[in-house]
Write a structure and sequence with these properties.
The protein has 19 helices and 15 strands. It is α+β, with helices and mostly antiparallel strands and 488 residues long. It binds phenylalanine (PHE). The site of phenylalanine has 11 residues, from strand 14 and strand 15. It is found in: Cytoplasm. Its EC number is 6.1.1.20. One of its GO terms (cellular component) is phenylalanine-tRNA ligase complex. GO terms for molecular function: ATP binding; metal ion binding; phenylalanine-tRNA ligase activity; tRNA binding.
Length: 488
């Protein structure tokens, strides 16, 4: 509509001198007219020159008085024509602002006699303010003095109006030609590409915002945890081997070869290569002996330990396999205390349900030093978990083949209003540490938890398959916040 009107008008006239007047005359919305001018200008159908005009518009207060009348007139009309009215009674009849402004303006105009009693001094008044406001609202010009007084009373403000004057441009035509934006196969086949007019490239157009670089919630929580370990002075262990031998994953950890966790129902064993090629022979002998007959004050398990079972390759079932390799390496050097951590993937041959996957991530921390106690473990756990925003902890005695004593860790979840299990911990057994070659008074305290559990709590996800795996909604990853504070 606006486009036809503009191009049509320019066909017969030199120029549109003011887009505002043009729009008003034709009953068009000025914004629409401006948009069309910009678009026609872009294709050089028209030339356009900016016009700026300072205009006055009513403030909210000004608009109110334009309909309801000025405060001074409202006040005047509330005073009885004959006699007088007590000031406090008059005050009750009017809004507080109207009363206040009305008193001062009507007093200044000498319309009323002010005192404890208020009475009229004139019989009739004219609402000049209201009339002026209505004229401004209609876009009429008013006297300079009137502008100043309305402005001083904050009833009008200045606004810059922007419009255009428009004339024919170099590509002017009474009707816009459709320009082609793409060269199609059909254009080539029909040969009409020769006649087509193509839209010019707009190298100034903004491109699509680049999408990418969204971190998965697990990565973000992993980073938070890694930072906590680093702040506590822990070193990261190398976890870059998913495939491990049963020896390092189980035997070294004093986990008997008949233990149900070593069953193929719980562990993924490798078919190819099904066994490890190399184990440290002297150490294997010590591990075998501690399983069969104990030593170091232990009776052992009293069974026939089989090398073939220890050789079997598997996908590591816990990151404690990494810890056992690192501790063995540590025991071979002159003793120095260490704090180690790891965060990486582990695998379990489990039925997948809303809280279990066959692969997940474990977080593990350990401290190795002389004379450590269970009290040290509890203290370190409080320090670690309170940095995650979990400061209410409880411990429950538990069993692991490789730790004694062992404790499950529970944290009070404010949101859920209950205690939730968040991890497992303990002190590594002498049957594990002494064959490695540690001095007798060296103790290792350790704990482990899944990365998925705190992440699900943090992100309010209740089905693990919404967090990890091929069914994950990418939108979740794009939308979730960059970081979060506190776990509960
Ligand atoms: N490895 C244990 C698990 O899989 C966690 C743990 C680590 C327990 C260290 C005690 C000490 O759950």
């Amino acid at each position: 509509m606006a486009e036809e009107a503009i191009l049509g008008f320019l066909e017969k006239n030199e120029q549109i001198s003011d887009s505002g007047n043009f729009a008003a005359e034709l009953g068009l919305d000025h914004n629409d007219v401006v948009n069309v001018i910009k678009s026609l200008h872009g294709f050089r159908y028209v030339d356009a020159q900016d016009i700026k005009r300072e205009t006055w518009v009513l403030t909210d207060e000004g608009r109110k008085y334009a309909t309801e009348g000025s405060p001074e007139v409202q006040l005047f009309l509330a005073v009885p024509p004959e006699g007088s009215i007590p000031k406090d009674e008059l005050q009750k009849k009017l809004a507080p602002a109207v009363f206040k402004i009305g008193c001062s303006q009507a007093g200044k105009n000498r319309w009323v006699e002010m005192g404890k009693q208020i009475s009229r001094k004139v019989q009739q008044v004219e609402d000049k303010v209201k009339d002026l406001l209505l004229r401004v609202e209609d876009g009429h010009a008013i006297e300079k003095d009137d502008i100043n007084s309305l402005k001083a009373r904050k009833l009008i403000v200045q606004q810059t109006w922007k419009g255009y004057s428009v004339s024919k441009g170099p590509n002017y035509a009474p009707k816009r030609k459709k320009v082609a934006t793409d060269l199609t196969r059909e254009n080539l086949q029909r040969g009409d590409w020769k006649e087509l007019e193509f839209k010019e490239y707009n190298f100034n157009a903004k491109g699509q915002p680049a999408e990418g670089g969204h971190l998965h919630p697990l990565l973000k929580v992993r980073k938070q945890l890694k930072d906590i370990f680093l702040q506590m002075g822990f070193e990261e262990m190398p976890t870059n081997n998913f495939v491990e031998s049963s020896f390092w994953n189980f035997d070294v950890l004093f986990q008997p070869q008949q233990h149900p966790a070593r069953d193929s129902h719980d562990t993924f064993f490798l078919e190819e290569p099904s066994t490890t090629r190399k184990l440290p022979e002297a150490y294997v002998e010590l591990v075998k002996r501690v399983h069969e007959s104990g030593g170091y004050g232990s009776r052992g398990y009293g069974y026939d330990w089989k090398r073939e079972e220890a050789n079997k390759n598997l996908l590591r079932t816990h990151t404690t396999a990494v810890s056992s390799r690192m501790l063995k390496a540590l025991a071979e050097k002159p003793f120095a205390p260490k704090k180690y951590f790891s965060i990486d993937r582990v695998f379990r041959n489990e039925a997948v349900d809303r809280t279990h996957l066959a692969e997940f991530h474990q977080i593990e921390g350990l401290v190795c030093d002389r004379g450590l106690t269970l009290g040290d473990l509890i203290g370190v756990l409080h320090d670690f978990f309170s940095r995650l925003g979990m400061s209410k902890l409880r411990f429950k005695p538990a069993y692991n083949p490789y730790t004694e004593p062992s404790m499950e860790i529970f944290s009070y979840h404010e949101g859920l209003g209950k205690w939730v299990e968040i991890g497992n911990s303990g002190m590594f057994r002498p049957e594990m540490l002494l064959p490695m070659g540690f001095p007798e008074d060296v103790r290792v305290i350790a704990w482990g938890l899944s990365l998925e559990r705190p992440t699900m709590i943090l992100y309010g996800i209740d089905n693990i398959r919404d967090l990890f795996g091929h069914k994950v909604d990418l939108g979740l990853i794009k939308r979730n916040p960059i970081c979060s504070l506190g776990m509960d």
